[in-house]
Amino acid sequence: MKRKLLLGVIVVCFTAIASYAQTASQDELLKILKSEIDRGMALYQKADIPVYLISYRIDELESHYIATSFGTLTGSNPNKERVLTVQVRVGDKDLDNFRELRDDASAYTSSRYTRINIPTDNDPKAIALVLWEATEKAYRDAALRYEKVKANVAVKVEAEDKAPDYTDISPVQYYEKPVKMSDFKFDVKEWENRLKKYSAEFSEIKDILDGESTLRFLVERKYFVTNEGTSIVQNNTYCHLFLSVMTQADDGMELPLYQSYFGHSPHDLPNDNIMIRDAQEIAKTAVAMKTAPVVDPYTGPAVLSEQASGVFFHEIFGHRVEGLRLKSESDGQTFKKKVDELVLHKDFSVIFDPTITTYKGTPLNGSFKYDDEGVKGEKVAVVDKGVLKNFLMTRTPINNFPKSNGHARAQAGYQPVSRQSNLIVETEKPYTEAQLKEMLIEEAKKQGKEYGYLFARVTGGFTTTGRFMPNSFNVTPLEVYRVFVDGRPDELVRGVDLVGTPLAMFSQVEAAGDRPGNFAGTCGAESGGVPAGCCSPALFVKQIEMQKKDKSQNRPPIMERP
Hints:
Blueprint: H1 2-24, H2 28-44, E1 51-69, E2 72-90, H3 105-110, E3 116-118, H4 124-155, E4 173-175, H5 188-200, E5 210-226, E6 231-248, E7 254-263, H6 272-289, E8 298-304, H7 306-316, H8 323-327, E9 348-352, E10 358-359, E11 362-363, E12 380-384, E13 387-388, E14 408-409, E15 417-418, E16 422-427, E17 430-431, H9 433-446, E18 451-463, E19 473-484, E20 491-493, E21 496-500, H10 502-506, E22 509-516, E23 519-525, E24 528-535, E25 537-548
Parallel strand pairs: 4-6, 8-18, 16-24, 17-22
Antiparallel strand pairs: 1-2, 1-5, 2-3, 5-6, 6-7, 8-25, 9-12, 9-16, 10-11, 12-13, 14-15, 18-19, 19-20, 19-21, 21-25, 22-25, 23-24
Helix pairs in contact: 2-4, 5-6
């Protein structure tokens, strides 16, 4: 019985390899990349400073962007391009040219971006010429930087992290057949008319100074080839739709409000009835914000909605568990030495999972099969019942975490670093929205507060993780309400930023809701902008800190909008 099972597995494996070879061999671009990488390694391995790794990554991007304003079409632009990213590593895996140059942050970041466009048709000579020129430059830069790295190591104190600069992996061959925008029956004219209909909802409301509806549909085909034998071709699709309005208060404060939607294709997006309803809702809220009271600095309890809590976890936690960042001597390393310690309420778990495309029926945009170093993306339980267990790792290891779990990611043209995928927050004890609000009111009473706050909608945020300035975060709310302890109706307010430091804020997270939200955004960091999903239930936090939001000093328009 065992022998038959083993034979079956072998047959399946050989069939998969044969299928890969048959389909990949017909891909002209893949053949060009392999040929040039073989030619380059034959020469650069014999150079004065030998190369041990060359990788070519090509992001083939086909997109269409549609923009409307107040019911009129302002842009409808197709685009197709191929972007080449070359990585050349010299020295060896213990010490190479990607080692941090301590006390020289500019030298570290400047080597991370080299956007090179290549022909979109498969002309072997034209593409080979671009590859040759880019590889030659990458080698010279790598050799020069390697000399600086060796000098830097010689004159600086011993590094705290003793892990090597790169690790071995088993070569991977993976191939997906091409996907084109035409495969999705994307009707540009139909979507232009639909978007005009949505933004037309803002046209008769004079207090709205800017009212737009936009859509971007992107089909991404990624090629990745290395001299180690890895050859990966995979597809990703992203479709983002936005409703956005902006009004301005009499004191000059500009008040934007957004609603975003994500799907893997246009067919995943809501129907017209939902979109028009949402457009009317954000317009009504935006107008009400004009006369809403401005918030003073505050500390006290708050509830963060599903959308707001996803951004909250992404900013204050996600960036601080990105492994490559923790290798840097200049990083704050907030959680590096807290493995197996309780860092969050014991009811909470935090998972990063690029292997799923939906979570409880919601499409996720942080999904991928293989990362930008050719490693299969893995589900990583970073926090298990409040206890820190893992980090998001690339092929650059850190002490006690020697292997990649497939989280090296980059925008086209950037060198990959550790980045988040689909962040998922789960709780052992979910509470209803009404229960969370009751917790907020009870805690406000205990603290002698007249009210707590509800953060209903946010636009994003940012964080600093380095030691060179305060290790803090800022989440940018758009729609915030006061929740009064005496039962008065909730009051819309404006002019607030949610700020704080990660360890202090994490210690105040007390309970979570019973339904997940999803903030499908683009995260910007050292390796550019990458799609990242943030799925979290609503949160009750016993103590948050708010500061006044920066505002424009310009007066509102004198003449009414036509």
